Amino acid sequence: MSGQSITDRIAAAQHSMTGSAISKAVCKATTHEVSGPKKKHLDYLIHCTNEMNVNIPQLADTLFERTANSSWVVVFKALITTHHLMMYGNERFIQYLASRNTLFNLNNFLDKGALQGYDMSTFIRRYSRYLNEKAMSYRLVAVDFTKMKRGIDGVMRTMNTEKLIKTLPIIQNQLDALLDFQANPNELTNGVINSAFMLLFKDSIRLFAAYNEGVINLLEKYFDMKKNQCKEALDIYKKFLYRMTKLSEFLKVAEQIGIDQGDIPDLSQAPSSLLEALEQHLASLEGKKTKELNADTRASTLSSAVSSLSSTGMSFSRMDEKEKQQALEEEQARLQALKVTEDQRLKEISMQSPPSASPSSQSIGSANNNHITQTPELFSSTLSANSVPNLNSDLFDLQPAFIPTVQSTPSISTANSAWGGTSHVVLVSLLCSLLSRPEMQWNQPGEKKLTGGQNWQNKTMSTTQWSPAPMAPQPMPVPHVVSRHTNTHVPPQMGQMGGVPVMAPQPMMYNQPVLRPTNPFAPMPGAQMQFM
């Protein structure tokens, strides 16, 4: 029965198809494999108990369903998983178990079909009784004794007498159910029962630590109690001594199976003289004739007993601190492993995809560069790169250290060409400003004459001089100009276009207030036309 069975694989696949991650994790944790539940599945279920959107009753019912299996391996691992969640899961889980009327009904469980079925079934029945008692204890006192605060200011040390006498028997019943597991070293032969024994070992230390502190509080208040309270307290103390003996036997088994000696606490019993002092005090309260110790002797005996029990409590506290340190180290190691894995993944991603421009940006850049390189060819007949420095200095002044360029945008890019990195937008603006000047003549080669042949002239009256009508300057988009070297924004100013000074359009004046004809080349009334 080594490894997962076909039934386990089919069940896990069914849960994967239905999308139930919790059911799949429970199925994975309670397979037919003869080994303890895997840590990764237990950790996932613990995480689920801390999530508010997880249905705790559904999780518990799924575990209960696994205990209905006929295989001792599945049932045992379902109990171990439940115990693990009660110890390390959210308190909501044990609260739900305590609210149920019945938990595990495995008093008659027996697996006859397996090699170890008879032996393991006995421990399953004992183990289930302890889990039932653990849930019942929480139901009675609304607290888990293995998780309560300990120390001088702990719960059991500060509890009042009446409540203390009612609480200590509950701890006794839970400890009795734990010690009834009674596993010998020869019977701990597989990973399943070893996992259960380790959980019981941890519970026994924490449970007895709370028990020990309750007894210390009980002894300190004993000589101030009433007769009935003293009688109950004496009975509790006698049972405490008996359970301390049984716990020492349980810890010897733990030592024999390989648990480190440093993880096993030392149990120090109170001197026997304390029991005699307690009995004599109760007899005196009942009116029996007995020799009662004086106050000094009684105080010294009580102090010695409390000191012995307190040393046992300190031993339990050291065990808790050691376990917390181990858990912290495991968590740090897990975080370090995750960090190394993340660094490796990022390194692989960076090696597989080196930084480069995206295809869309490359295509846009190439298209803009092609457009810009074609711009000088369009205006090569009128304006060349060599003629730019010969223009008037009031128009613009190109210095080597400051070359106006258009700010880079997704649609406009600068071109490193013979135009000194100036965008075609700036060139177009410059050309328009030049054409607006009256002294600049624009004669495109090969322009067709309007009419009249080669020597045709337009004769007008000498008293009338026509000039073109003034036209309102059309607003043009002003690009933002940024220096290539300083990368500082140069805002456009009035009378400038693209960072280059532009001559304002010259005003056009009429000598006489005459109306502008529709066709400026049509003959004017009273004018004489002569054809040469």
TrEMBL record:
Q: Which residue windows does the record flag with biased composition (Polar residues)?
A: 452-467
**Keywords, ordered alphabetically:** Acetylation, Cell membrane, Coated pit, Coiled coil, Cytoplasmic vesicle, Endocytosis, Golgi apparatus, Isopeptide bond, Membrane, Nucleus, Phosphoprotein, Ubl conjugation
Biological processes, Gene Ontology terms: clathrin coat assembly; clathrin-dependent endocytosis; synaptic vesicle budding from presynaptic endocytic zone membrane
Q: What is its main location?
A: membrane
Q: Taking every annotated instance into account, which residue ranges of this chain make up the domain ENTH? A: 14-145
Residues in coiled coil: 275-341
Task: Give the GO molecular function terms.
Answer: 1-phosphatidylinositol binding; clathrin heavy chain binding; phosphatidylinositol-4,5-bisphosphate binding; SNARE binding
Compositional bias (Low complexity): 349-367
Q: Which Pfam families match?
A: ANTH (PF07651)
Q: Which GO terms describe its cellular component?
A: clathrin-coated pit; clathrin-coated vesicle; extrinsic component of presynaptic endocytic zone membrane; Golgi apparatus; nucleus; synaptic vesicle
Q: Where in the cell is it found?
A: Cell membrane; Cytoplasmic vesicle, Clathrin-coated vesicle; Golgi apparatus; Membrane, Clathrin-coated pit
Q: Where is this region: Disordered?
A: 347-372, 443-490
Q: What is said about its interaction partners and assembly? A: Binds to clathrin; involves primarily the C-terminal sequences, but the full-length protein is required for full binding capacity. Binds phosphatidylinositol 4,5- bisphosphate. Interacts with PIMREG; this interaction may change the subcellular location into the nucleus. Interacts with AP2A1 (via its alpha-appendage domain). Interacts (via N-terminus) with VAMP2; VAMP3; VAMP7 and VAMP8 (Via N-terminus). Interacts with LC3/MAP1LC3A.
Role according to the record: Cytoplasmic adapter protein that plays a critical role in clathrin-mediated endocytosis which is important in processes such as internalization of cell receptors, synaptic transmission or removal of apoptotic cells. Recruits AP-2 and attaches clathrin triskelions to the cytoplasmic side of plasma membrane leading to clathrin-coated vesicles (CCVs) assembly. Furthermore, regulates clathrin-coated vesicle size and maturation by directly sensing and driving membrane curvature.
Family label? Belongs to the PICALM/SNAP91 family.
Write the protein's name. Answer: Phosphatidylinositol-binding clathrin assembly protein
